[in-house]
C-alpha cells in the first residue's frame, strides 16, 4: 500500500500510540480517561519495550528516553527488583483496565439496573464471560468463521454475552470509549458511511440493478424483483442485507483509525403502506446487527433516515426517483404527517438507555430539497420535529440524541442563527465536486509531493474550510455527513441508471482502478487529506462499492475500503492535519467553544420567541406546489387513529441473564398517541405522484370539526388522536 508522497510540506504521521500486540486477547495499557491525549493514554509496560531498542531512543510521544548512567553498576541487585516490578505493572495494566472497562463499566442511567459481567464465573451460570481483544486478536463471528483484528491505534473490542449493552469498547486511543462522553469541538469525527446497505443505490450495488435493466430506484427494483419469484423475489434484497456488510467490515473501519459510521436507513424498516412495493420491516434486525457490531468495536453511529414518504428530494436514494411530494403539492402535508410519525418511532427507540451511547446522532431527513419545498416550510417542519423529539427525550445534554438536519443545498451561511435556543441540533452538509454542476477537466495525476493532485487539494481547502469553520460559530455543531474523492462524476450509475455521461469515453480511466499509477494514487490521497483537513468532522461516502456484473468496482473514487486496499486513502486519518496550511490555504479556525444551548447546556430548548412566532404554526402557513388560488385547508390529511408500529429490540443468542433490561422499543411511556392512517371514506391521490393532480374543492370528511382535528394539529402532530 503506497504511503503519502514525500514532500517538503508533508505533514508527518504520528506513530500509533499503542504498539502491535500480536496474537493476544489482553488489553495492556488501556486508558479510559475522557480527557487523555493519545500520549497521556499510553502506559509504559514491558509490552512497550524491546531488547532491540538502542540505549537512547524516542518514546511514543517523541520524548527522549535514556538508559540510566548507573545501569551497569549493581545490575545484579537491580534487575531482580525491576523484573518483579515489571511483572506487577504488567498485571496491573491488564487487570485494572479490564475490571473497570469490561466488568465494572456503568451506563450513565443509574436508575436502570442492567446485567453486568462478574469476575466470579459461578455468578453467571452457563453464560460465558466477556471476550475482548486488541490488535492481532482473533475474532470469531456468529457463523463460526474467524478473522484477525488489525488495529495499530490502541483500539479494542468487547463482546459480552452477559451484558450485550456493554459500552466499554474503544476504536482507537484518541477516541473516548462509548461509555464516556463525546465532546463536540474537542473530539473529532473521522467517519464513513455504510451507504447502499439498507437504502439501495444503483452505483453502490450495480449488479442488483443490472439483473433488472428497467430498474432505476428501489421502488422499481422491488416491483421487478417481487414479480421474479423464480429467482427469489424480494428475498434477493434480504440476501444483500445479510452479505454486503459483514462484521469484518466494521472491524476494518475501526482498524482504519475511524471512529464513527453513518448508517442510512429507510422508513420501511418500520412499515410500508399497501401501495408501496418495498420490503417491509425485514431490514430492521440487520440494522440492529450493525448497531451491535458498532458497539462491539467502539464506533459511534449517526443513524440517518434517508427516505421519506412521497420523496423529499426526488433522488433515487429517497425510495423513488421523480417528483418531490413531501411538503410539496397536494399530498405534501399528508406525507409530512407520516414522516413525523416515523421520526417519532425511531427517536423513541434510540433514546432508550441501551442505545444512547451507540447512537448519539439522529439524522431526521436526508437532503431535503429546500429550493423546491421552501425554507420557511422546512423551518416550520424542523421546529415541529425538534419539539416532538425533545418532548420524548427531555431537554439538555444526555437526554436523547443530537438532531441532525441537512443544509438542503442552500449553503451553510443560510442557516446561521437557525432556531436559536433549540436543543442540540447539528447541521449536516454534503460537499461534492462531482455534483457541483461546474464540470472541471483539470487533471489530478499531476505528480507527487507538493505537486500531487493538481488544483484539487487546494480547491477543497479553499472551498470548504472557511465555510465549515464559519458555520461552527454561526450555526453551531456542523459536520460533513458525506464527501468523496469524486472530483468528477465518473462511475457506473453514479448519475443514475441510463445516464451515459458517467461511463463516457472520457471516464474510462476512472472506472477501473487497476489502471491507476502511483501518480494518480498520490493525487487522490492528497485530495482526501485536504478534504479531511478542511472539513474537520466528516463521513466519507462510502465504505464499500459492490462489484458490477463483470466483477469490477466501477466507481472506485467512492470506496474508502478499496482506497485503503490499493493505496490512495490515508491509513491514518490524522495524517490530514495541517494539509491545507501546507498548501498555503488558511482559514480562521473555530476555537472549539459552542454556545451552551447548542450542546445541551443552559438555555437549551428555549427557542427565540420571535422564531416561534414566525415558524411555530404547523402545518406551515403555505405549501409549495399548489395551483394558484387553491384552498390549503382542503388538502388531504390523515387521521391519528391507527396502532403505533414500534420497533422491536434485538434477540440475543444465548439469551442474557434475566437481570439485563433489553427494552421494548419505546422510551417514553407517556407518549401514547396513535399513528397516522387514511380517513375512512376519503379518496386520496397517489402519495408519490400528486404534484399535478387536481386540488380538492371540499373537505374530507365534510365536517369542519373533523377537518380541523387532522389539519391543524397540536404538538406533536401525531401524538393526538382525532
UniProtKB/TrEMBL annotation:
Cellular component, GO, one term: extracellular region
Single GO molecular function: glucan exo-1,3-beta-glucosidase activity
Region feature Disordered, mapped onto this chain: 1-30, 111-137
Signal peptide feature range: none
Keyword Transmembrane belongs to the record: yes
GO terms, biological process: cell wall organization; glucan catabolic process
Low complexity: compositionally biased ranges: 117-126
Catalytic activity from the UniProt record: Successive hydrolysis of beta-D-glucose units from the non-reducing ends of (1->3)-beta-D-glucans, releasing alpha-glucose
InterPro entries to which the protein is assigned, alphabetical: GH, Glycosyl_hydrolase_5
EC number in record: 3.2.1.58
Bias (Polar residues): 1-12, 20-30
Keywords noted in UniProt: Cell wall biogenesis/degradation, Glycoprotein, Glycosidase, Hydrolase, Membrane, Transmembrane, Transmembrane helix
Transmembrane segments: 81-102
Top enzyme class: hydrolase
UniProt similarity note: Belongs to the glycosyl hydrolase 5 (cellulase A) family.
UniProt name for this protein: glucan 1,3-beta-glucosidase
